[in-house]
Amino acid sequence: HDITAAGFAPSPNTRLIVAGGGSVNNTLLTLISNVFGMDVYRASSGNAAARGGALLAYAGVNGVNKMEELVSRHEFELVSKTDLKLYETYCGMRANYVDLQNNV
Predict the structure, then answer these.
(1) pTM of the model
(2) Based on CB atoms within 10 Å of each CB, which residue in 2, 36, 47, 104 is the most buried?
(3) Cα separations (Å) of 67 from 24, 52, 63?
(4) How far apart are CA 76 and CA 69, in angstroms?
(5) Helices 26-36 and 84-102, interaxial angle, to 10°?
(6) Which parts of 1-104 fold into alpha helices (H)?
(7) Residues 34, 87 contacting (CB under 8 angstroms)
(8) CB 43 within 8 A of CB 74
(9) CB atoms within 10 A of CB 32
């Protein structure tokens, strides 16, 4: 699914934070970083997915509009920086992907 078609438009300050089993696969994280054009961070503590859900619930109940206020209290390690040449390559392939997806 093309997330840009769904209205997602990452800004230069956007970062992707991963958790769970896939977050230990550095090859997958490098691919994700290059496809989405965002640096990928991994939570340095255990139970990151549960903690993320709790932070979202807290934000909803307490009217926190900026997730940065919440995530700034937690440690994340940079696991993959975007290779801009590869990102541009993937961007060029996006239209072909959408065409294939629509014809399946």
Answers:
(1) 0.69
(2) 36
(3) 24, 10, 11
(4) 14
(5) 80
(6) 26-36, 48-62, 67-71, 84-102
(7) yes
(8) yes
(9) 18
Contact 32, 15 (CB under 8 A): no
Under 8 Å between Cβ of 38 and 8? no
Question: In which residue are the tokens 């994340």 written?
Answer: 76
End-to-end Cα, the chain, rounded Å:
13
- Strands in 40-43's sheet, in edge-to-edge order, are 16-18, 40-43, 76-80
Q: What pLDDT band is residue 22 in, cutting at 50, 70 and 90? A: confident
Query: Which tokens in the block code for residue 21?
Result: 């089993």
Of 74, 72, 56, 76, the residue nearest 64 (C-alpha) = 56
Residues 67-86: pLDDT tens digits?
A: 677 667 677 889 999 999 99
Contact 78, 26 (CB under 8 A): no
What tokens does 66 get? 């900026």
